[in-house]
Amino acid sequence: MIVGVPKEIKNNENRVGLVVAGVKTLTQYGHKVLVEKNAGVGCGIQDEDYRQAGAEMVDSAKTIFDEADLIVKVKEPVEPELNYVRPNQVLFTFLHLAAVPSLATALVEKKATAIAYETIQLPDLSLPVLKPMSEVAGKLATQIGAYFLQKDKEGKGKGILLGGVPGVKRGQVTIIGGGIAGMNAAKIAIGMGAEVTLVDRDVKRLEYLDDIFGTRIKTLMSNISNVEESVQESDMVIGAVLVTGAKAPKLVTRDMVLGMEAGSVLLDISIDQGGCIETMKPTTHDHPTFEINGVIHYGVTNIPAAVARTSTYALTNVTFPYVLQLANKGFERAIRENEALYKGVNVCHGKITYKTVADDLGLKFEKL
């Protein structure tokens, strides 16, 4: 099989879909690997490293898409990549289709076959490919939020140190969602000395988090009263809500945001699934924030790209076994023999094959 790895072109996306070890393994199995020149530079992998591992370096993404049977990426295809997608190839990447109707429509029109990293799901309902990126995004969110709370950042933040100092109260952080991202955001917030409130709708999850963190955090059941009170008392709010494959519910309303003090910071990790904060909109690493009523909003859709080297290796650790199965067995056999991979198929030959995505977009669902 011919496996293609294009250079990511989304804003400041320095991750890459395949590392040197992956190339070496694929070529040892007899597969041909095409890598676009400079695809790995942003995370410290040079073209010569790929070449020595057996990859063929090519000049353009178009060549990759024209020749490869399997395209391995990190983020969803954007223009002009969408123009290159062919019906008879498999696209393996993050997609988040429920939040981007135009992308779903384009893949349907292209009669594409696309496997979404974020819906690959094990029998225990865990999401093995999404997990490491949620860990990274959660940890980064608190770090980034602390940065924007500083007064020297264009004079917009509250000027609060999360950990405080003796005689001065600590910063207050509320995390909406106690999954992998929320739990990791809490770890860093606790480590920085903040007062942390974590809100979730799952009692068992709250019990688990309470066991893990003890009195270092306050856990609350997710309801409109608890969310409103926590948000409006906070210096920083991190949205980390996930419904697998679906658009995130809006749990933090505009009125809640308007009740926050100026200089407070909102970060929405779930923005690539539409976001759980009503006032949030997607932003980029070049222009990460905007303000509403003096409240700073951070809605970068590829947060882990900020630490591209860590993120690339964490991501490829979990994606490569699936890449190898797809290459060795072909798409049809690979998804038949691996239930988790089967659940990752969002589009097959131009048909929406993931029910939650179809329902959210109002499109026809067709069972794979």
What is the arithmetic mean of pLDDT?
97
Strand content: 15-25%
What is the CATH topology classification name of the largest domain? Rossmann fold
What is the helix/strand order? Answer: EHEHEHEHEHEHEHEHEHEHEEEHHHEEH
What's the number of extended β-strand segments?
15
Number of helices: 14
Number of domains: 2
Low-confidence stretches: none
Structural class: alpha/beta
Identify the CATH architecture of the largest domain: 3-Layer(aba) Sandwich
Overall, the morphology is globular
* Helical content class: 25-40%
Report strand order across the widest sheet.
Answer: 3-2-1-4-5-6-14-15
- Evaluate the radius of gyration: 21 Å
Question: What is the CATH class of the largest domain?
Answer: Alpha Beta
Largest sheet: 8 strands, mixed
Please summarize what this structure is.
This protein has 14 helices and 15 strands.
Structure description:
With 368 residues, this protein is α/β, with parallel strands linked by helices. The protein has two domains: 2-112 and 308-361, Rossmann fold (3-Layer(aba) Sandwich); 133-301, 3-Layer(aba) Sandwich (Rossmann fold). It is built from 14 helices and 15 strands. The chain has an eight-stranded mixed beta sheet, sandwiched between helices. Strands 9-8-7-10-11-13-12 form a seven-stranded mixed beta sheet, with helices on both faces. Helix 6 packs antiparallel against helix 11. The protein is globular, with a radius of gyration of 21 Å. The relative contact order is 0.15. The model has no long low-confidence stretch (mean pLDDT 97).
